[in-house]
C-alpha cells in the first residue's frame, strides 16, 4: 500500500494501481505522486509483468484538480507521471469507467493500451475552463484519432461515448462486466502475446485535407468570438502536424501557460465552481429529505407552459398540461410536437423518441387530472386575478404534499402563496424563454416556502436539465431587476446623443450575443410599451421617464423583427438589423423636444453606463439577501442573459477586472454629472470599497 490516494495491489503477476480520491479522482498532488511512485515500484518489481491503472468509486479520473491551478506546483508533475507510464518496460493498461476527462484521459494516453466499459465517456473538456489539454493531449489525440477529429473534440470539449472512442482508436477495447477483471485479463493477454509497448508519441499524425485546420478555424469564428482557448487549441494541433513530438509538447506548454494566466480562464474556472455552488442552498443542508417527484402538472400551455412540459418529458417524467379551452390545448400541443419534430429533422431525436416524449405529455381541461401530480407549475397569464383563480383551485384539488409552483416573472410570490392554505408548499420557478432551451432557472423562495420544498425543487431543476439558482421575492427577481438598470441607461443615452447601433455594438463587442436595442426588437417593443401605458409611468414615477424614444418607435408600429422594423430595419429572411435614418431622425427630434443638446459618446462611457448600474443593483440585491452570494448572480447572468462566460459574470468582473473602487468612483462621477440619484452607490458597495474587499469575500 502506498499513499492513500493511490492503492497498490496485485492479481498474480499484474500490478494494480487504483486511484482513490473521491468524488471524481481529480489529479491532486497526492494522486500524481502516488501514481508515479506506483508505476516505478511495479516497473522495478520482477514479480510483476504488467500494470493496470483504474479509478476507484464512480469514475476513472476527471482531470487535473482545478482547485490547484494558480497555486505553486507540488508533488510529481503530470508530465512525469505520463512519461513514466509511457516509458515503463512492462505493458500498462488504463481501465476506464465513468468519465476519463482532461488530465484523466491524458493519463490514460500514457498507458500502452486502453480498455473501457460501454457506459464510459472520455473527453478533453479543458476548453470550458478557458484552457487546453496541457499534458500531451493536444499532441497525442491527433496521433490517435486524426487532426480533424482532435480539433472538433478539443474545441467542443464534448464527452465522447466509449463506442465512438473505440471507432477512433482512443480506446482499444470495450468490455462488458467487471472492469478490473477484464483489464487484468487484457493485460495478461498482452503479456502472453508479447504485444508491443505501443507509445502514442511514436505514431504519425493523420491529417485528411491539407486545409483542414484553416477550414476549422473559419467554421468556429462566430461561436468562439472573444474566447482565447479555442484559438490556442488550433495552434497546438497545427504544431502536432508540423513539428516532431517533443517540439509539439513544448509548444503545448507555452500555449497552455498563456491561457492559465489569462483573465478569460480565471473567469471560466470561477464559473465552473459557481454553477456547482449555486445549486447549494446555504441554510438547507444537502441531506434535507426531499419529496418524491414522479409526475408533474402544468397550468397553461402557452409560450412558457409548453416549453416547461417538454423539460419534464425530456427527463422521462410524465406531465399533465391543463388549458382553459380545447382550442388553446390543441394549439399548445401542436407547438410542442412541431418543436420535437424540428429537433428530429436536425437529427437530434428519432421518430420513436418524438412519440415517446409526446406520450409523456397528457393534455387535459380538467383539474381532476392533476390530483396525482407531485409538482404543479402554473404558467398562465401574468395577472394577479388569473393567478388567484388558479391557486385557489390548485389548493382545493392538489394532493397533500404536492409542490405548487408559479412561473410568474413579476408578481409577488408571497401573495400568490397566500391564495392557498399551504403557503409552505408554494415556490416560484422562473423559467426563461424558450423554456425548453434556456438552462437558467431562478427558483424563488417565498417567506413561507419550506426547506424540503426548496431542496426538492433545486434537485428537480437539475433532473429536468436546468441550472438552478435560488433567489428571493423582489421586483424582477435577480436577472430582470439588473437588466432593468441597463435598459434605463441605454434609453437615456439615446436621448443624450447615442444611437442604437452604437450602444448595441459596444455591448456586442463586450461579448453579449446582442445589444439592448436588438434584443428589444427581437422580444417585441410593444410588450414594454403596453406595460408603460398600463403603469402610466410618466405621471406616476418621480424619476426620469425612460420611454420617450421607445414610445415614439412603437407609435410608428415599429414593434421589432416581427413587423420588419423597430430600432432597426430588417431584411427578411436573414433578419440582420440595418440602422435606419428614420429612427435616427426620430431620436434627434425626441432630444430636441426634451431640450437636450446631443453630444458624442465614447464606447467606454456607454459600457460603464450600461454595466456599472447592474453591478450596483447586484450589490443591493446581495444586501437585501435576494441572492445568496455574488456567484449566484454571475450564474444567472451567464445563463439567462448571455453575459460572456469568459468575463465570469457581472460580480466577478467587477471584483476582478474593473475593481470595486473603479466602479464606485464611476458611479459617483455619473451622479455628479447628471444629478440623478439613480447613480448613488449601494451602501454595500461603499462599505466594501472602504474595507478594500470584494463581493466574493461576503
Ligand atoms: N478538480 C477539482 N474538483 C472537481 C473536478 C476537478 N477536475 N471535477 C469535479 N470536481 C468537484 C466538483 O466541484 C464537485 O465538488 P462539490 O461536490 O464540492 O461541489 C464534485 O467534484 C462533483 O462534481 P460534479 O457535481 O460536477 O459531479 P457530476 O457527477 O455532475 O460531474 C464530472 C462529474 C463530469 C467529472 C464534472 O465534475 C466535470 O465535468 N468536471 C470537470 C472535468 C474537467 O474539466 N476536467 C479537466 C480539468 S483541466 C485538466 O485536466 C488540465 C490538464 O489538461 C492538464
Ligand atoms: P402565454 O400567453 O403564451 O400563455 C399563457 C397560457 O395560459 C395561454 O395558453 C392561456 O390560454 C393559458 N391560460 C390563461 N388562463 C388560464 C387558466 N386560468 N387556466 C389554464 N390556462 C390558462 O404566456 P406565457 O408567455 O407563456 O407566460 C406565462 C407565464 O410565464 C406568465 O406568468 C409570464 O409572466 C411568465 N413568464 C413568461 C416569460 C416569457 O418570456 N414569455 C418568461 C418567464 C416567465
UniProtKB/TrEMBL annotation:
One of its GO terms (biological process) is fatty acid beta-oxidation. It is found in: Peroxisome. Pathway: Lipid metabolism; fatty acid beta-oxidation. The keyword Isomerase applies. It comes from the Bacteria. Residues 476-570, 606-693 form the 3-hydroxyacyl-CoA dehydrogenase C-terminal domain. Residues 297-471 form the 3-hydroxyacyl-CoA dehydrogenase NAD binding domain. Gene3D superfamilies: 1.10.1040.50, 2-enoyl-CoA Hydratase, Chain A, domain 1, NAD(P)-binding Rossmann-like Domain. Keywords: Fatty acid metabolism, Isomerase, Lipid degradation, Lipid metabolism, Lyase, Multifunctional enzyme, NAD, Oxidoreductase, Peroxisome. InterPro entries: 3-OHacyl-CoA_DH_NAD-bd, 3HC_DH_C, 6-PGluconate_DH-like_C_sf, ClpP/crotonase-like_dom_sf, Enoyl-CoA_hydra/iso, NAD(P)-bd_dom_sf. It catalyses: a (3S)-3-hydroxyacyl-CoA + NAD(+) = a 3-oxoacyl-CoA + NADH + H(+). Monomer. This is 3-hydroxyacyl-CoA dehydrogenase. It comes from Vineibacter terrae.
